[in-house]
Design goal:
Structural class: alpha/beta
CATH topology: Rossmann fold
Order of helices and strands: EHEHEEHEHEEHEHEHE
Radius of gyration: 17 Å
Distance between the termini: 11 Å
Shape: globular
Number of strands: 10
Strand order of the largest sheet: 1-10-9-6-2-3-5
Largest sheet: 7 strands, parallel
Number of helices: 7
CATH class: Alpha Beta
Bound molecules: fructose -6-phosphate
Helix content: 25-40%
Length: 245
């Protein structure tokens, strides 16, 4: 696992975008796994800016997002689909037919999850998967549990996640469930890039890097992947044992 402590969120965004842009320049039909939430916003700004400057095109890029809330339509402003449209897809030349999302409104969640798994496989697997981390150590919406999962699945969101994300919803309207890629799906990506900033992530980052590999801290499983790059700021790196080499 390679760890970098960066000066600012903007600095992280530029560095992560540079890695993604290099990947797309080398392989224009790259398969990119995206995350939502606060952490990747500067990266998406930097990708949109690079597209506007003519540095990169995403027209042949295939995308898979990590997760989606249950019960929110694509047009709901709080859906992760709407988040991606607003923050990235509509700001560059991504093609709608290349964008893959778990459908949190489908009646048959098992069928949706199985189809998503098949689509990832048919696309040849994910080249780079972008990740954030929950304050409880979740990746995607893989909450702390007794076993690592494989394959997309329906998850009951933890109280910690409801506390962290509830602020985006009007009183009490945050969904209680989501569809998410499993830990196994994330580990199959050829390269993983994680972004974590702020003091609230420090404990989870220390557990991910220095703690045992355990489903009680789902992100700790990244210790078993051979190509993981983690971008931190001083606050999120503050509890790491022995600092950063
Ligand atoms: C989002 C996702 C989550 C977030 C995590 C951190 O698609 O899968 O694991 O990455 O909850 O969220 P932020 O970045 O908002 O702190």
């Amino acid at each position: 696992m390679q760890l970098f402590v960066c000066e600012s969120k903007e600095d992280i965004g530029e560095k992560v975008a540079a890695l993604l842009i290099r990947q797309v320049q080398t392989k224009p039909n790259s398969v990119l796994g995206f995350a939502t939430g606060r952490s990747p916003l500067e990266t998406y700004d930097a990708l949109a800016a690079a597209y506007a400057r003519g540095v990169v095109s995403f027209k042949d890029v295939v995308t898979f997002n990590l997760d989606e809330y249950c019960g929110l339509t694509k047009t709901d402003a709080n859906s992760y689909y709407a988040f991606m449209q607003k923050n990235l897809f509509s700001r560059a030349d991504f093609r709608t037919e290349n964008i893959h999302f778990l459908d949190g409104c489908a009646a048959d969640d098992k069928a949706v999850c199985e189809a998503y798994r098949a689509e990832m496989q048919a696309a040849g697997g994910i080249d780079i998967q972008l990740l954030g981390i929950g304050t409880n150590g979740h990746i995607g919406f893989n909450e702390p549990s007794d076993a690592f999962t494989d394959g997309p699945f329906l998850v009951t969101l933890s109280q910690s996640t409801k506390n962290a994300n509830g602020k985006y919803f009007a009183d009490g309207s945050m969904p209680t469930h989501a569809l998410t890629m499993g830990v196994g799906d994330i580990l199959r990506a050829k390269k993983l890039i994680m972004i974590a900033t702020g003091e609230s992530k420090a404990k989870a980052i220390a557990a991910m890097v220095n703690g045992p590999v355990t489903p009680q801290c789902p992100a700790s499983v990244l210790q078993t992947h051979r190509d993981v790059t983690v971008f931190l700021d001083a606050e999120s790196a503050a509890l790491l044992e022995g600092g950063i080499s």
